[in-house]
């Protein structure tokens, strides 16, 4: 199907990731323009029951590669399955979530197929010839680039979570399920997974979080991050940190937001005791709403914040936690 | 162990990025360049491997002549030698073109391990390491946080960051590993190191020396092209909430978040 649009349906612990629904919502509009169908690619073990939900968000067809060898992600196995499928069906466009897994896998597939990949895009559309164009941040968001593709097909892109609008699911829609033979043996996989250790936090990854509560130098020490953990609990948020807080050893590296950490775009970013160094601002300025709490009225973060409170975060944050708790209790 | 570290010279992360009025590219006049921060972790890890298991550390860098400064930084940290891929025809390409060029150099080299930073902080693509692995027929592991090489040097155990945790896996060597913060603390170049670096072998190659045709590299060899660049959407400074202490300001904030922003 030379004009179909494909979406890689990443699964995490038995659930389809939200970015997949965002891509299907956008992909549906694209497929209407190309005149092709919208297909989702579902890889894993015992995942077939998830296919229906992909249909609710617009997938006409779901390719299901269900095999024990795909239970845990490995770049070798997933690459082989995707490359075989793409070669056999020749879609026009393939989309991936710009998640840790999506960013690991998609360049490998692109290199296998000799095609282009636009990474970590915040916007995609079709030009008059039906070719993909993409908008993506560079320099951690200090500049944006618009990209076009060469004539090699398919055009591929990874899409930043929370960047594309998600449509309402239509539970009456049922996709066609196409079972795919998996021609991968254990010997094809050059990385052997021994174990996965989970971090204590059950919270979403910063790059996918809808609300982030983040602390900087003004937190004064690791113990005070408990204030942010408490606030994050009531907001169902993820806790982030500035480079200053990470370099001081107060927070683990994976919590760092900014140009040498994670670039995030939540609906709400609450910056506590963060002055707003340029490399930090670059990493969070695409957040839909920014709240800054800082003692220093001259802190650059206030230039980016929608709402600011000039005060001691140690006093403000506990009150904020209580107020939100009250609000949630009223619902 | 022969280790190759791919490094790129990029604008310092403190840089303000401005775009030319015609939107074609960024203005580079006032930029200060440094080694890509994620590549520093690769250089450090390569040096650690060498210190433990002996062997050589080679810096591989593609970029214009100014990149020599970054290559010297790697040599001053302790790398043994460097290859500089310097050719105007290689400039301006995408990740695919960059990986194609780097792969062509690596095909003529002996290596047990290749490090790449998880991404370069200029184009932020996070692609070259994985593409390089595919082009060389090697496995790759992204975002490593710990590396232990087996005594027979034929495999390694790596800790790799995955969503919500860490994957511990064995990978056969040679392999491409992408590096990031948390793996180690990159050393600073010492003064004697800087002096020694000036005498270390630095080989400069152009596209022709690698047998690369002009349509396979740079812009011509790219699969994606930048058509225009724009500044990021500007955020207007919002409102500072007035009031006497948190008991007054916080309820106002919560009301705004609920009624104006509608996000809580």
Provide the β-strand percentage band of chain B: 25-35%
| Structural class based on helices, strands and sheet pairing of chain B | alpha/beta
Terminal-residue CA separation of chain A: 49 Å
Task: Provide a count of the helices of chain B.
Answer: 6
Largest sheet of chain A: 7 strands, parallel
- Specify the helix fraction band of chain B: 25-40%
Strand order of the largest sheet of chain B: 9-8-7-10-6-1-4-5-11
Residue runs with pLDDT of under 50 for 5 or more positions of chain A:
none
Shape, principal axes of CA atoms of chain B: globular
How many beta strands in the DSSP annotation of chain B? 13
Please count the beta strands of chain A (DSSP E, at least 2 residues each): 18
Strand content of chain A: 25-35%
For this entry, what is the oligomeric state of its chains?
Answer: heterodimer
How confident overall, as mean pLDDT of chain A? 95
Roughly how many Å is the radius of gyration of chain A? Answer: 21 Å
CA-based gyration radius of chain B: 22 Å
Order of helices and strands of chain B: EEEHEHEHEHEEEEHEEEH
């Amino acid at each position: 199907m030379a004009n179909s649009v494909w979406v890689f349906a990443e699964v995490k612990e038995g659930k389809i990731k939200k970015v997949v629904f965002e891509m299907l919502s956008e992909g549906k509009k694209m497929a209407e323009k190309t005149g092709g169908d919208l297909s989702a690619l579902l890889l894993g073990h015992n995942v077939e029951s998830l296919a229906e939900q992909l249909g609710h968000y617009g997938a006409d067809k779901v390719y299901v590669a269900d095999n024990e060898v795909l239970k845990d992600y490995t770049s070798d196995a997933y690459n082989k399955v995707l490359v075989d499928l793409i070669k056999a069906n020749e879609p026009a466009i393939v989309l991936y979530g710009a998640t840790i897994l999506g960013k690991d896998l998609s360049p490998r597939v692109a290199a296998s197929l000799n095609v282009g990949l636009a990474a970590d895009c915040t916007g995609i559309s079709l030009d008059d010839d039906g070719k993909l164009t993409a908008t993506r941040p560079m320099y951690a968001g200090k500049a944006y680039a618009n990209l076009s593709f060469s004539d090699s097909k398919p055009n591929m892109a990874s899409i930043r979570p929370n960047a594309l609008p998600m449509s309402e699911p239509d539970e009456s829609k049922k996709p066609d399920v196409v079972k795919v033979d998996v021609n991968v043996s254990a010997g094809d996989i050059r990385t052997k997974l021994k174990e996965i250790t989970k971090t204590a936090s059950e919270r979403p990854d910063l790059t996918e979080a809808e609300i982030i509560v983040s602390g900087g130098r003004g937190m004064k020490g690791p113990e005070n991050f408990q204030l942010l953990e408490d606030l994050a609990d009531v907001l169902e948020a993820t806790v982030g940190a500035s480079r200053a807080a990470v370099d001081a050893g107060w927070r683990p590296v994976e919590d760092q937001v900014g140009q040498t950490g994670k670039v995030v775009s939540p609906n709400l970013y609450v910056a506590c005791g963060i002055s707003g160094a340029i490399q930090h601002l670059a990493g969070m300025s695409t957040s839909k709403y920014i709240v800054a709490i800082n003692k220093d009225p001259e802190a650059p973060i206030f230039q980016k914040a929608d709402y600011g409170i000039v005060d001691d975060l140690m006093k403000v944050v506990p009150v904020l936690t209580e107020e939100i708790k009250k609000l949630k209790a009223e619902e | 162990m022969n280790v190759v570290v791919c490094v790129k010279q990029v604008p310092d992360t403190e840089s303000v990025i401005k775009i030319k009025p015609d939107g074609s590219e960024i203005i580079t006049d006032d930029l200060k360049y440094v080694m890509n921060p994620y590549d520093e972790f690769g250089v450090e890890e390569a040096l650690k491997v060498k210190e433990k298991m002996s062997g050589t550390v080679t810096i591989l860098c593609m970029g214009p002549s100014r990149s020599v400064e970054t290559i010297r930084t790697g040599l001053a940290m302790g790398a043994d030698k460097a290859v500089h891929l310097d050719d105007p025809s290689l400039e301006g390409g995408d990740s695919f073109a960059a990986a194609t060029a780097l792969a062509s150099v690596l095909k003529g080299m002996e290596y047990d391990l290749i490090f790449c930073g998880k991404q370069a902080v200029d184009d932020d693509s996070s692609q070259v390491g994985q593409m390089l692995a595919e082009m060389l027929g090697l496995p790759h592991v992204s975002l490593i946080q710990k590396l232990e090489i087996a005594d027979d040097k034929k495999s390694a155990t790596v800790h790799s960051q995955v969503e919500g945790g860490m994957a511990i896996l064995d990978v056969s060597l040679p392999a491409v590993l992408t590096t990031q913060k948390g793996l180690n603390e990159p050393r600073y170049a010492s003064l004697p190191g800087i002096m020694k670096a000036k005498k270390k072998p630095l080989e400069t190659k152009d596209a022709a020396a690698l047998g690369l045709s002009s349509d396979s590299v740079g812009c011509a060899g790219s699969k994606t092209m930048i058509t225009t660049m724009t500044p990021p959407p500007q955020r207007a400074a919002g409102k500072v909430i007035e009031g006497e202490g948190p008991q007054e300001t916080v309820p106002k904030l919560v009301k705004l978040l609920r009624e104006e922003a509608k996000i809580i």
